[in-house]
Specification:
CATH class of the largest domain: Alpha Beta
CATH superfamily of the largest domain: P-loop containing nucleotide triphosphate hydrolases
Radius of gyration: 19 Å
Number of domains: 2
Strand content: 15-25%
Number of helices: 8
Shape: globular
CATH topology of the largest domain: Rossmann fold
CATH architecture of the largest domain: 3-Layer(aba) Sandwich
Structural class: alpha/beta
Oligomer: single chain
Number of strands: 10
């Protein structure tokens, strides 16, 4: 895909020195700029490894990875990342946790002193957007799990990255909080239109958030198929129980079941 913003071409990954056992094998994948992509598949198929490869956190055993036309050979700078655990620093307030990327990512780092008021306002606006405006001075231990993950998303997006990597960001939360954060995530994406790659086991989550869903086989993982979604936005929790939505979830479940066999 020559127009892909994130592109993996014939990518394989082995954790063995002799490259005899593969976690991923021959993966081809392309995500367009501004697209929200989800990767699903059985446990152990290499979904998280794929995300680390795309972010430059792991080097591929073979194949090439490009982001915005540039070959990925080291960890990407400025990419937003959110994981299953919020990873907020317990000694920093919610606001200061969210502002962390503005202290280390250019050009914000250079402007840290001269534009501090603007940076604070940027973080405060984002917190207000996700319903945490009144909790800016609270510490992580004073927040619920859902609130911590909202703050985590704000931290990943405060520097307006072109690319957001999401590795099971809502998996540790209860069902109601997860659904609440799907709506928050959709709202943030519709506002900023960053490119997103989501790894998830939750098929409803994938269908709710994504423009395209990539289904992986059991390990060694490879792409079984890509499913393009044409569901209108904004999507609602109520719409996730409608027949069209449910049928897509069932189709994906069948594909993953076949990929496991």
């Amino acid at each position: 895909m020559t127009d892909a913003f994130v592109e993996l071409q014939n990518v394989s990954l082995s954790y063995d020195d002799d490259a005899q056992t593969f976690a991923l094998y021959g993966v081809d994948m392309g995500v367009a700029k501004g697209e929200f992509a989800a990767v699903v598949g059985p446990s152990g198929c290499g979904k998280s490894s794929l995300l680390k490869l795309a972010a430059g956190l792991l080097p591929p055993t073979s194949g090439t990875i490009t982001v915005d036309g540039q070959l990925v050979t080291r960890p990407l700078k400025g990419v937003g990342m959110a994981f299953q655990n919020s990873t907020l620093m317990p000694w920093r307030t919610t606001l200061k946790n969210v502002m962390l990327p503005l202290e280390i990512v250019q050009p914000f780092k250079r402007e840290r002193r001269s534009r501090r008021i603007e940076h604070v306002a940027r973080a405060e606006r984002l917190l207000a957007t996700v319903g945490l405006g009144a909790f800016a001075a609270k510490f992580p231990w004073q927040l619920s799990g859902g609130m911590q993950q909202r703050a985590n998303l704000c931290r990943a997006l405060v520097h307006e990255p072109e690319l957001l990597m999401l590795d099971e960001p809502f998996a540790a939360l209860d069902a109601f909080t997860r659904e609440e954060l799907w709506v928050v995530m959709q709202s943030l994406w519709m506002r900023q239109r960053f490119t997103a790659v989501l790894v998830t086991h939750d098929l409803r989550e994938a269908v709710f958030l994504a423009d395209s869903i990539w289904v992986m086989s059991k390990g060694p993982g490879w792409i079984v198929c890509k499913r393009r979604l044409e569901l209108p936005r904004p999507r609602t929790i109520e719409s996730s129980f409608e027949p069209t939505f449910v049928n897509i979830v069932h189709d994906l479940r069948n594909l993953i079941f076949q990929a496991r066999s």
